[in-house]
Amino acid sequence: MYTLPSNVDQCELKVMKNNQNGKFTNIHSHSFSKDYSISITDINKNGKIDYVISNYDSHYTFFNISTITNNAPDKITNATATLKGNGVVLNWHATDDKTPQNGLTYNLRIGTLSGASNILAPNSTNTGQRKLLEPGNMGADTSVFFNLLPGTYYWNVQAVDNSYQGGAFMDADKTFTIVDVQASNLEATIVDKTSLNLRWSNGNGTRRVVFAKIGTSGTAAPANSTSYIASSEFGSGDQIGTTGWFCVFNSTTNNVTISNLSADYSYIFQVFEYRGNAGSETYITKSGQGNPGTFSTAVFSLQPPIGNAYEFTVNSQIKMGDFNNDNYLDFLFYNSHTSSMLLYLNQSDNTFTKDSIPLVSKLNYASFHVFDYNSDGLLDFIYTGSFYESWNREFSRAYIYTNNGDNTFTGVLSDSILGTQTSSITCGDFNNDGNIDLFVGGLKSNIIPDPFYGSITEFNPISYLYKNLGSSENYKFSTVNSQFKALKDGGSCFGDFNNDGWDDLIISGNTPDDYSYIYLYLNNQDGTFDEQELLVSQGQNYSKMVCADYNKDGYLDFICGAIYFINKGDATFELNYNSFSIQNSNNGFTISDFNNDGTIDILFNSSKYPHFKKLYLNNYPENNFSIQSDFNSEDGIGISSGDYDNDGDADFTLAASSSSDKINIFRNTLIMKSGVYNQNQKPEKPQNIQFNQSPNKLTITWDAVITDESPYLSYNVSLKKDTILFNSPNSDYLTGKRQVPEIGNSGLNTFALFKNLEPGTYEVKVQAVDGAYCGGEWSTPTTVDVKDLQTFYSFDEVCRGAETQFTDQSSPQDKITWLWRFDDGTTSTEQNPKHKFVASGAHQVWLIITSTELTDANGSFLKDSVMHTVNVKPNPKAAFTAPNACQGTETKFTNNTNMDGAEAKSWKWDYGNSDLSTDSIPLNKIYGIAKTYNTKLVVVATNNCADSIQVNTTVVPMPSAVISVTQNSKFSFCKDSDDSAILSLATQDNCNYQWENYSVVLTDKTNNQLAITGSDNVGIYSITATVTSKLVSEGCVARSTNPVVITINPKASKPIIEEKTNNTLFCPGTEVELNVKNYSNTVNYQWKYYGVVIDGANNQVYKGKLAAGDYSVEAEPGSCATESDKITLKHKLALSKPTILGHGPTVWILACDNMTATNYRWYYNNNLIPGANKYQYVANKNYGDYYVTVNDGGECWTPSDVFKVDLTNGIDDLANDNIKIYPNPSKGIINISIDKDIIENVTIEIFDVLGKTIHTKQAEGTSYFKVNLSGYANGVYYLRIKVKNEIIVKRIVKQ
Known about the structure:
Elements: E1 2-3, E2 10-18, E3 24-33, E4 37-41, E5 50-54, E6 59-62, E7 80-84, E8 87-91, E9 105-111, E10 143-146, E11 151-160, E12 174-178, E13 184-192, E14 195-201, E15 207-214, E16 246-251, E17 255-258, E18 267-275, E19 282-283, E20 293-295, E21 300-302, E22 317-321, E23 330-335, E24 340-346, E25 352-357, E26 363-371, E27 380-390, E28 393-403, E29 409-413, E30 421-428, E31 437-450, E32 454-468, E33 477-481, E34 488-495, E35 504-510, E36 515-523, E37 529-538, E38 545-548, E39 557-560, E40 563-567, E41 573-576, E42 587-592, E43 601-606, E44 613-618, E45 625-630, E46 639-642, E47 651-654, E48 664-668, E49 672-673, E50 687-694, E51 697-703, E52 714-721, E53 724-726, E54 751-755, E55 760-769, E56 782-786, E57 793-795, E58 803-808, E59 816-822, E60 827-828, E61 834-836, E62 841-855, E63 861-872, E64 880-881, E65 885-886, E66 890-891, E67 894-895, E68 904-910, E69 916-917, E70 925-926, E71 932-941, E72 946-956, E73 964-965, E74 972-974, E75 980-984, E76 991-997, E77 1000-1001, E78 1009-1013, E79 1019-1029, E80 1037-1039, ...
Parallel strand pairs: 65-72, 74-81, 83-90
Antiparallel strand pairs: 1-4, 2-3, 4-5, 5-6, 7-8, 8-10, 9-11, 11-12, 13-14, 13-49, 14-17, 15-16, 15-18, 18-19, 18-20, 21-48, 22-23, 23-24, 24-25, 26-27, 27-28, 28-29, 30-31, 31-32, 32-33, 34-35, 35-36, 36-37, 38-39, 39-40, 40-41, 42-43, 43-44, 44-45, 46-47, 47-48, 50-51, 51-54, 52-53, 52-55, ...
């Protein structure tokens, strides 16, 4: 059903036919309004799709009337069910007449009864009729996986076409049965010494529980309907009874990290699937693949022991090897107590089956050694010791046991190999014939006469080399020689110690007189050896030894006892006594790359008290080892290592135990997996074999094989020249099958070195050897020529600019001539020339040598040549700039070094003042002292080419720009005046001066002195200066900090003044108005009277009752003022200015002091008082301003000053005549008398009419004193008398 969106008003339905070409054709359309829905179905069940359009109250049905019949899809007939892991995979296939194969969908039905669909319903009837028009429930898939509970299931499937028509189900339901699947494939990874992470593959339970126990064997048994509470901390979860099985996990996932473990123990873990809720659990108890599993947090995990060693026996031995060629390492074990040989065959699941090997004769103090002596691809062994005939007669025997290929061996007494007891046995191909030879040393029995017993047996040391005679002689052995030191209780190994391709021999041991020796026998390539004594001591036991290239330098080293012998490259050795801290030197050991780091480690095992096992890891590239684990165990005796479980890391076994009487297997915990091991696959063959020849040396290299389960492999190199097989590869030359269960002759290196090879053509092959000693396929053979006349030379790698030294190393060194050709066209015939190349980089140099003795088949002297690319290293050219700088400023260092294509490794700057730097971009320095500094740069490139340069840089003193002003200079003066300002800078060498006004450069002012005078333009000058050193390109500039401000003021225009009426003659007291005729409102004015400034008269107009005299006005008062011409005012003839005398305050009586004038006029508040025309006027108490004018009969009236009538004015006496003032008016002397009763605290003060105090006196107990006003102008004054808190003011008049 399809519902239309609510925001759509009108819709159109179109039925489109698929044309099967990516296009459609419209075959039907119908329009309808919104709120309708569409349903698609087969309404009339005719197999054709119809549709219905409807809403809440109506619907339309559209029947499909197509005449084309749709046939149902074909019935499925080829369905299969395949059980897989925890479930089942169902597969099927179907066809249809119209719907393409990829267009069909499928409908699956699953039930627990035939025809039932209680597990998966198909929405179809059992006849195939579809109940819903939609694709099948499986979509287009034709394969599906189901994880179901155990039980039997019935299933069927039908095909559905694009018309949603279902085909018929299969004729009958198919069935499959799911069984219980237990968890499997346990794996573990160490987290730390006390915890590990355990993982597994889940079974088909709904949950799972994990139990753990200390130990290596046993199984847990959880009880049904019992819930176990888990704790990932071992020992804290529920225990199954008292069994020691603790629950460490109970959930649905497939991993857990378990803590509280001890590296001293191995632990066994078991996972159980179960179903049901708490209290109703049903546990699946059957075993799973790799479940249980034994793991440890130690370096090695002790596995369940195998076999039975019966009791502790010193000479029990064990060796790993694939004896049945099934690609799993087996164990060959010799029990010296029972004199029995046991073969434990690896069953690939951590179990072994035991086969006893019948021995021809049981020998005492026996030894054995594993090797494929007859090159048939099966590992055989030699068995040697002494046969006990009677208490006084023993006979030494040696038996060769041939592997029959069916887990049985046939032993034959050797008629050529002398048997020994406590033997040292090693094998190798000393004569390079491809057959494995033997060295056997030890104690050989001899029957000697005895006077008491008739005869007895004595044992004497012998050392013999035996040659394998090969297939033509049925691989018998013959004695080569007995030149070797006769030693007992020793060790031995073959190896090419001088890298000449021939096996040398090292032996160790003791003589009967208790001296211990180590001897090296260098192979003379003719069956003889040169003996070299490496070490001798008394009381030591240099027994077992193992040879390998431990420091990966291409030269074979060895370890004997506790001493590390480091090959110096010429078969001489440096002795390292400090690598191993072990308590005695009579040790067994085994070597392998135990930590998968690509170097050979060593595991020591002591067979004597105190017993120990110590793992020492190789510290390559350092020439030493460090202890990784100390097992501190009693498990002495034989030891062997190899990857027995094929997981890519090296494990080891111990041959016997005094406590467990078992053979113990120690599994490496780098990779921990339980269950069936993978079958070991041969390593792939090495690729990219390359050769590098140098004088008397051939280096072979190859690419490491990285596809093996072992991350690091050992390698075997074979050189063959004619029939001689060099380097003793101990592998079949054709098949690569290993003939000894040991690492390859090149160790873990991916190169091999050979020295002093004879001329000829050599075929070279390389094979990889994995941790289970399985040899891979040989590399594709390649050849290399070692010639009679061969050109070699060496050369120094120098830096550009130096001479390259060429050194001829050709073979031979005499009876040849030389021709050197350089790629610059020059040549040389010197043997060891020098040549300087102009450019760095690669240069081709040829050396052609010509023999003066050897000739070819044509009689021509032999020639040989070689070309090498000589590299001249780029050499940096040190360069930098450090321009002169000013004291206190930065000296800018710029690194201009040309690296010539090299990369800088280091920079060293010496700034000449004890400062150093290692930056590539130098620091800018600020030097505090002005002087010349010797600065230096040393640059070293990564190729160790270097250059240096010294540069002198001068720090000059910072100039001074302090401006001084000369004496008598003025900072402000007038235009055109004689005034000036002289500014100066200190005279300084090598400096430029520049003056600025408001920071604008005065281009013509470049001296150290600047004068500003009245002839300069009017204005304000803000003068600064800059002083620049001529010795520094930039930065050495001083600028004055504070400008010097000079003002040149303009001179004002001369003002012109006039009297308003153009009259200068006036009666006294007449209002006169003076005016500036050329007034400007931008100019200030000041009026003067007789040249004296008139206070407050600074406007254009000055007016008032002006006195007669000279008046002028000054424009712009100050230094640049301009004064007008004076104007003189004159008074007409008139009386002198009168003075008013007043008496009050009870009644004010005013009188004019000029009592002889012709006429008087009195004014009150500037108004004429009518009728007041006498010299006296009574004002009564009419307070105000009064003045009087007098006239002598002419036109001018002369006014008095204003007399103010108020309460404080007048000349009244104090009551009771306390104070008397006389005379008043006075000509100058005024007497003051004060009553004696009030003379204390009396202050007298006299001030003028303007309020200015002119006299002050303290009475100080005096009742009478005088005041002299003779020096003051005539006029009215006031006397202020302060008596206690009362103030009295009296008016006095000076005439």
